Amino acid sequence: MLEQIIATKKEEISTLVLPEQAVVTNYSLYKALKNKNRSVGLIAEVKKASPSKGVIEPNFDPIKTAIGYEKGGADAISVLTDIQYFQGSRDYITEIKKHVSIPVMRKDFIISKAQIDETVRIGADAMLLIVGTVPIRELKELYEYAYQNGLECLVEVHAKEELEELLDVFTPKMIGINNRNLKTFKTSLEQTKEMGEIVPKESLFVSESGILTSEDVQTVLRAGANGILVGESLMRAASPEIGIQTLFGGEKVEANT
Fold first, then answer.
1. CA 192 to CA 255: how far, in whole Å?
2. CATH code at 55?
3. What 3-state DSSP class applies to 20?
4. pTM of the entire structure?
5. Looking at the 3D structure of the chain, how many domains does it have?
């Protein structure tokens, strides 16, 4: 699946036309997660569909969802922009940025500087970089290019070997451990438990995928996670606010305004 997605990305890049620069206010994802609203920072995901689950929210309204996340006390928002596999759009970022005052991260398969230029133009505050999409040294170049252009990066790994390979080359400010195996698409919080032990203390550590309940939140918190990225359980909730409240077991927060 990953190889197929990367092949599609290469085709998209060959015909990429950069949009006009969006005029928006930018916010730091790193600072938002450091100054989190609850015991663990929440990146709430705007996500219509995925290859493994199909359409998650038939009545998808990205702006309404994002506004609800902010009202519910999310620290940041992640937005799927991949069209073919996740039914996303880069336009969602620009529109959402007009309606919220918390960081917005682009979640896509970024493998080129042209995509980073695009990410800057659409107004994103941060973006995802995935270990395994390009060689590690190329990933480091993309990481550095992003920061040079005012974009923060969450660098995602899916296996202990990937994390070790990453740390041999550089130490990102933010490391995401994805609990989903990209080869089998099976999800287990054991990924966070196992790899959390070797995430450097100076890196902000985010656990991603498979976090569905307040018990799951406590599990990754005990494993050392500073933040969590949650999509499916929030998208399936009666409302974004209810989804967040349920996820945190009623843990109170003064909602953002």
1. 28
2. 3.20.20.70
3. coil
4. 0.95
5. 1
